[in-house]
Structures are given as structure tokens and as C-alpha cells.
Design brief:
alpha/beta, 130 residues, single chain
Length: 130
């Protein structure tokens, strides 16, 4: 049994398989996942686990060089501010929510949380550790 870090085997595998510039998405409970895109569903009930909780755990194990969010995230100021604080050292890119959803066809996985606030979604772009 694994002693540290992410215990979810599906997430651990996705992270271990990432190469430079590969992308994963972390999503609220309502974001549609395109057919053919791997969905790792963590949602247990409303708000559990929360979006920021999952982002923080993933960020601790993943080298992130860029973050993409929807422009509309500004309408969720608590999440928007926390994302800016957490990723202040990396490039942050914004798109319309519709354009954001189109990009989900190219991610390695969408990790679905129990988050029930609007636009709590991001795409994390893998960096390198050397």
C-alpha cells in the first residue's frame, strides 16, 4: 500500500504518465465531460471533495507550468482569488467557458469533484522537474 501522496490509483496513474505539456482538468460537479475523455469521479456529495482541496493535492504532486481557466471564473471570486494565489508563479491563461469546454477533448483526464459553485474548473499543463 502507498504510504504518501495521492492514494487514488486512477489519479496516481494519470499523473505518473504525464509528459511535458500534457494536460489534466479538475472540474466542478456540473462540467460536461466529452465522450472518450477519461473521467475520474471523486464526487461523493454536494461539496465533497471541494474543487480547491483537489487542486491543492494535485498541485503538490504535479509540476504545473501553466493553468487555464474560464474567464467567467471571476464570477466566483473566492475560487478565482485562491487560484491566483496558488499559481502566482506560473502562467495563467483564460478563455471563454465555451472555449474551455472545447479543450477538454485534448486532456488526459477530467477529475470531477463535488464542487457546487460556478466555473470552478481548471486545466493544468504539465511542466518538467529538471
Amino acid at each position: 500500500m502507498k504510504r504518501h501522496g495521492i492514494l487514488n490509483s486512477s489519479i496516481s496513474k494519470v499523473l505518473a504518465d504525464l509528459g511535458h505539456t500534457d494536460r489534466i482538468a479538475i472540474a466542478d460537479a456540473g462540467l460536461p465531460v466529452p465522450p472518450g475523455t477519461l473521467k475520474i469521479d471523486l464526487a461523493l456529495k454536494e461539496g465533497v471533495p471541494g474543487f480547491m482541496e483537489v487542486v491543492q493535492v494535485i498541485q503538490e504532486e504535479m509540476s504545473v507550468e501553466k493553468v487555464t481557466t474560464a474567464e467567467e471564473m471571476v464570477s466566483n471570486p473566492a475560487v478565482h482569488q485562491k487560484m491566483k494565489e496558488m499559481f502566482k508563479a506560473v502562467e495563467m491563461d483564460e478563455r471563454t467557458h465555451e472555449a474551455f469546454k472545447q479543450e477538454l477533448t485534448d486532456v488526459k483526464a477530467v477529475i470531477r469533484t463535488g464542487e457546487m459553485t460556478p466555473y470552478a474548473n481548471c486545466i493544468l499543463h504539465a511542466g518538467v522537474i529538471f
